Amino acid sequence: MYEALKNDLETRFSIKFEVQRERRIKIKIDKKDVLPFLSYIKSKGFEHLTAINCVDWIEENEFELIYHIWSYKDKVHIMLNARIDRKNPVFETASNIYPVAQTFEREIYEFFGVDFKGNKRLIPFILEDWDDIPPFRKDFDPVKYSKEHFETEEYTEEIETKVRKSQKFRGEE
Q1: Pick the CATH number of 3-125 from 3.40.50.720, 1.20.1530.20, 3.40.50.300, 3.30.460.80
Q2: Other CB atoms closer than 10 Å to residue 122's CB: what's the count?
Q3: Which of 56, 54, 57 is nearest to 67 (CA)?
Q4: Dihedral sign computed on CA atoms, order 112, 108, 29, 85
């Protein structure tokens, strides 16, 4: 079912194409090819950008951007994955191809610190008066932030231990 799409895309782009399950395709691509890919795939009927996600791979010093694209005609979901540098997280906006990208990029900018060049709406979205590193980065310390900003709260050792345990998924011991 996906062979024609796979062959078409592989002749145009250097990608890793994987059918995850019926109607869901995962494609890994180099960051330089993301915008040309999005433009091309939109012309092929994948007209709905449903979301953009960001994953913080702190150990690899990278962020992974995942573009979720849907075809109403074919009822197929493509997840386009590309990695960018975490120390200098700058990427071009996809809002010229999919206008809704502007909002998704704004959220990623606020929570991860990825700067989307060309997006004119990278302004505070949800966080007001934020003055720390973006809170979804794995090196953000919620206990430290809470102690600095909510001094009226008492942080018992029990509470701090529970929070620290929940941070193990962030790579902390």
Answers
A1: 3.30.460.80
A2: 18
A3: 54
A4: negative
At 114-152, the pLDDT tens digits run 999 999 999 888 988 888 899 999 999 888 888 787 766
**Contacting residues for 154 by C-beta, under 8 A, at least 6 apart:** none
Tokens at 44, concatenated? 């092929």
| Strand residues in 46-167 grouped as ranges (E) | 48-57, 62-71, 76-85, 90-92, 115-117
Q: pLDDT tens digit string along 49-103?
A: 999 999 999 999 999 999 999 999 999 999 999 999 999 999 999 999 999 999 9
pLDDT over 90 (residue 18): no
Whole-prediction pTM value?
A: 0.87
In angstroms, what CA-CA distances link 55 with 40, 65, 94, 100, 127? 25, 7, 18, 20, 19
Cβ pair 118, 98 in contact under 8 A? no
